[in-house]
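Problem: given the chain below (204 residues), write out its structure.
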Amino acid sequence: MAGMAGLDLIVGLGNPGAEYLRSRHNAGFRLVDTLASGSGGRFAFEGKLHGEACRLDIGGKPVWLLKPATFMNKSGSAVAAALHYYKIEADRCLVVHDDLDLPPGTARLKFDGGHGGNNGLRDIIAQLGHGRFHRLRLGIGHPPDRRRVIDWVLGKPSAGDEEALTMAMVRALDVLPLAVAGQFERAMLLLHTTGTLNGGHPAS
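Solution.
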């Protein structure tokens, strides 16, 4: 699999601002925040990266974390800047994002592909000219009325969905050291066989 050397950059997607903090769309931010706080890391704003960055050791390997300070649909400028500044190849980058096509409680790793309607991924692919980077997809499910997708992604999950999302993040964090070390197939096997718990512009 491409990127067997492992990961050097993990990007969490989301929207800046307190009003979006607990929204479904900020699942990526939440995961990297949890990762940083659990390892004693602290984010600091870096203007040249258009976002907040943090350096951690994961399994003995140094890794950069990034949270774009742009709105979701401009995430590509931060990702491209970080890859260029740190001299990291795109296939050594993992982008963590919410996914409407997966039910809450589901987390999936994949490499390459399209944007699936997520404007954060759309802009990253546009900026890089390709989609050859790793993704960690965190399921948020679809709204009952598909015409209300924007309200759904910018809204807060129900208590049940919140619990499911949190547990999906826990499972993802458990296998992340394997992905960082380049053991993607093992990480995917462990993550994908754990099942699920149930069934700038800020929008996706």
